[in-house]
Predict the 3D structure of the following.
Amino acid sequence: MKISKIETLCLSRIHERENQWMTHTIKALKADCAIVVIHTDEGLHGIGEASAYGGPAQIREMTSLLAPLLLGKDPSDPFIIPHPNGRTRQHDTAVAGIDTALWDIRGKIQNKSVCSLLSKKPLNRVRLYASSGCKYDWREQPTQLIEEAVNYMNEGFTAYKFRMGTEWSWDGVTVDRLLELVKELAKTVNGRMELMMEGNLRLTEDQALAIGKGLDRIGGFSWFEEPIPTENVDGYARLCASIDTPISGGESLTTVEQFLPHLRKKGYDIVQPDAGLCGISETFKIAELAYNNYGVDTCPHSWHNGLMAMANAHVVAALPNPRVLELCQIQGPLQWDIIKDKPVIKDGWLELPAGPGLGVDIADNLEERFPYIEGDYSIIVER
């Protein structure tokens, strides 16, 4: 069996005004998606979603540049897999899509699920956490955050991650004001949901320390995610040593080598690689290294669409200490309409399909239904 063709589907869907979302100064106007499809001369094909953070058009261009290295090769040969380099997002996301599509083909060749290729005893379902907190505005209805959490709890989710709202300087928001809202949120869910806070790299180390201590007092938090810039490794180490709430991070890192400084200095309590950004192969290598050498768990970052969620779900199902998987809540219909038969999600759990590979296939006529719209998915807002 040989690889005969590689293509990239670039897709978009404009958000309705009421479904546009905003955090910090970023306002999202559309949802994007990039899907790499690898065809073989025997009729099998594999699919993999590349994180749209790389830019779908740029991912397609990079995939075309990488394609000659793969055409005519045996898709089951592990040595043909391109490696993320940690230098450009366009390259690494294209690699991620290719890598995931190759895993999908290998599973189909062996009639095994991807998680069964990764582990002898994988889970058949993974617990999800609702990931949002992107619609509350400090100027208008900050308590929308609490209403949203209650809605997800009523849907059966047992965990919820939220962001820190719109730009604080616009409305004089302080650490104390944030913690007041968080305390009200925790009181409302009353232990019925795990909570996670996403920092989006927005904070100074002093702010992060104050918030982390506040989360310790409030309790019920599974982690505090990426509070300060990623490159401040020593700052992360100090936070981990000073705060009881676990500190997580690494969603933008794409290689084992990039994670090592944080792991060696005990700068992450939880690592968060993403199969959509660095591929299933590298994500699993990072997870194995973190757990076996440093006792650190992996809870993958998984933003954007359902095909990426499936890739990360197979990773979580195969982990030595599987915990939870992120499920983006603000992508709109594009998220699951790209898949022919949506997997079962019930009471906050995703059931892995019984079929080989990723267990799902892409829907028909995607480029006609979701024609790609050039440009960034978001704009920068000023007030």
